[in-house]
What does this fold into?
Amino acid sequence: MAHHLHRQIREAVVTALTGLTTTGARVYANRLYPIEAANLPALRLYLDDETAERLTLHGNPIEARVLTLVVEACAQAAADLDDTLDLISQEVETDLAAGLTVGGKTLEALYTGMTYQDEPAGTPVGVKRMTFSIPFECAANAPDTLSL
Amino acid sequence: MSNPFAAIETTLNRVATSALANATVAWGGFSASAVFSVEYAETLGMANSAPVLRVRAEDFPALATGETVSVDYADTLTDYVVRAIEADGTGLLRLVLEAA
It folds into this structure.
């Protein structure tokens, strides 16, 4: 049995975003503990929520789902913090515009907006939070397989 | 009405700063002992620090936010920008610092 599509999608996002110019291999899915300064700038990503709608009437319906992906650009810098975060988001948006490969199929990752937060400290930090919608379909009894 | 405790506060501040000082701070033509701390701080899910200096106000007259101070602590000299000046009303200042 394959992994849940959420896991497959999350892993596809990690694969897609690993190796970008500014953040390199520093891509963290569902990071619970603080990121050390040596591992910045970095990307944090979460599958935040999902909505589902029944597409068919028969038993074991096909569901149209829309998954919300959050990608956070994280940086810590005494200067040009905004510029660094804008550059990271440019790289992320450009990369995800090509879609995600999941189960041999290409899923769209549609950009839906961003929020920005910064905070003073020993070294100022900033987070640019980008959200994407990932629509896909699967059978109710097979959340590990994409429907055609 | 003048502060009847001003003389006591001045004496206590001098004694406390001398006894507890662990750093030397320089700014402009001024230099003085100070209490320096760099506590761990988590900011927006990232590990960080919260450097703070405690100095006597009389040692740094006219110090303003945005100024750069040099802190000699643990045999290391580091420049910091003063981001906030918090007076305690008894003659001591708490300086919130940021890496220069």
